[in-house]
Amino acid sequence: MAMFAHYLISSFRSQRHSLLAAVAALSSPFPPIILLKLSRLCTTTDDKDNSTSYPEAENTCPVSEFLLNECCFCQSELSAILKARPSLVATRSAHTAQQAVQLLRDSGFTKQQVRKTITRNPSIITFNADRQLKPKIEFMKALGLPAQDLGNVITNGSRLMCSSLEKTLRPNIQYFQNLFGSEADVSHIFKSAPLILLKRNGPEYWENKLKHLTSFGLLEDDIKELVRRHPLILSASMDKVQKNMDFLMHTAGLPAKFLFSYPQSVSCYSLERRIKPRYKVLSALSAMQPSKRPPSLLSALILGEHKFLKKYVQCSPHAKKLLEMYNGKPALF
Predict the structure, then answer these.
(1) SS3 91
(2) Are 241 and 223 in contact (CB under 8 A)?
(3) 316-321: long-range contacts at Cβ-Cβ below 8 A with a sequence spacing of 24 or more?
(4) Which of 180, 204, 224, 315 could form a disulfide with 185 if both were Cys (CB 3.0 to 4.6 A apart)?
């Protein structure tokens, strides 16, 4: 029985290229999606050394041909796009994609920015250029973003093009315009943290965040300056901010204004995986060398793990015990 099954599989595999060639030779009404499905049907589960789909089947659709031939996408980029948006294979016309790409080019996007934007968010080439994309681009241009910055903003925050202009982008931008009173500061948020502008009900959410920051003794003007310098503080959960601030202020003894120089210590760093282990190591070093100036916790926090260990752990005669402490194990000196 096993030999018979193997014979059937081998026979089927030997004929699959002929089957695909025969179907490909047929003219419409067979859409490209049929070829793609047949190519996947003809790929057996034990044929792991070969591709699970045929590039020639995927490349026969108009959108694929446009991206490969006119936008200079490579095959791997195209495969990633079609994996994210498989419905593109069944599209009979590349007109919508062509219009979207042309709009990006006309808006000052470089070839690389066009490719990155589409690769990161393939939905963009399914949107109507005049009705869905152009109003958002014009809105961003009105904020004073030059062409190069606009390309970078949309490349790094391509999901902006999927959000509602009237329900999300416009009210969120208006909130920051009212907060700062400066178009330049709003443009800075676009460039440094575009994805926070996608927040639904953003103004209400951010107002609660600002009120929470006042609980640490920061003044209103201080908080505005903090948000201006580091907009990502608004994307951190209040629970994370509370726990990190409690530890850094009450355990490490830092004043609240450390946030101005090291805001990432609250918004980005993990209390359990980064802040506490490094604090323990530095406290141990200070106890071992009481005559020396204690090392700065904030300066230590911004170092990558390799640099931190090299600077504070590996050079110590107690390196083994410090490393155990760093990894959460009790260590006696």
Answers:
(1) coil
(2) no
(3) 316/285, 316/288, 318/284, 318/288
(4) 180
Place of tokens 């000196």: 333
Task: Tell me the two tokens of residue 230.
Answer: 């580091």
**Cα separation of 170 and 182, whole Å?**
15
At residue 176 the predicted structure's pLDDT band, cuts being 50, 70 and 90, is very high
Residue 43 CA to its chain's centroid (Å): 33
Q: Give rounded-to-5 percent helix, strand, coil for the chain.
A: 70, 0, 30
* Residue 42 CB coordination number (10 Å): 19
Sign of CA dihedral 286, 287, 288, 293: positive
The phi-psi region of residue 163 (left if phi > 0; otherwise alpha if psi is between -120 and 50; otherwise beta) is: beta
Contact 169, 163 (CB under 8 A): yes
Q: Say if residues 256 and 292 touch (Cβ distance below 8 Å).
A: no
Describe the crossing of helices 2-25 and 32-41 by its angle, rounded to 10 degrees: 160
Q: Tokens 């204690």 belong to which residue?
A: 294
Q: Are 302 and 266 in contact (CB under 8 A)?
A: no
Query: CA angle at residue 109 from 104 to 115, to 5 degrees?
Result: 80
SS3 of residue 139 by DSSP: helix
The DSSP call for residue 252 is: S
What is the value of pTM for the model shown?
Answer: 0.71
Q: What is the pLDDT of residue 285?
A: 92
Please, what is the average pLDDT of the chain?
83
CA geometry: angle at 184 spanning 180 and 186, to 5°? 55
Structure tokens given for 94: 């590349």
Residue among 269, 284, 273 nearest 330 (CA): 284
- Distance CA(275)–CA(298), nearest Å, equals 9
The mean pLDDT value for 83-110 works out to 93
Contact 151, 120 (CB under 8 A): no
Alpha-carbon gap, residue 199 to 197, rounded angstroms: 5
Residue whose token pair is 């018979």: 4
DSSP single-letter state for residue 302: T
Q: How far is CA 305 from the centre of its chain?
A: 22
For residue 49 the two structure tokens come to 């050394």
pLDDT in tens, 307-321: 999 999 999 888 999
